[in-house]
Amino acid sequence: MIFSKPITEIIKERTSWRTYSPIPIEKDKEERLKEILTLKNFSSPFSKISGKCRFELISVPEFEPNEKKKLGTYGLISGAQEFIVGATEKSKYNLENYGYLMESIILAATDMGLGTCWLGGTFNRSLFSAKINCNSNEIVPAISPIGYTPENRSFKEKVIRKFAKAKDRYQWDKLFFNDNFNTPLNQEEAGKYVPLLEMVRLGPSAGNKQPWRIVKESDNNIYHFYVKSSKSKFGIKYSMFIHLDIGIAICHFDLTARKLEIGGNWEFLQPKVNEIEGLDYIISWNGSP
Question: What is the pLDDT averaged over residues 214-236?
Answer without folding.
Answer: 81
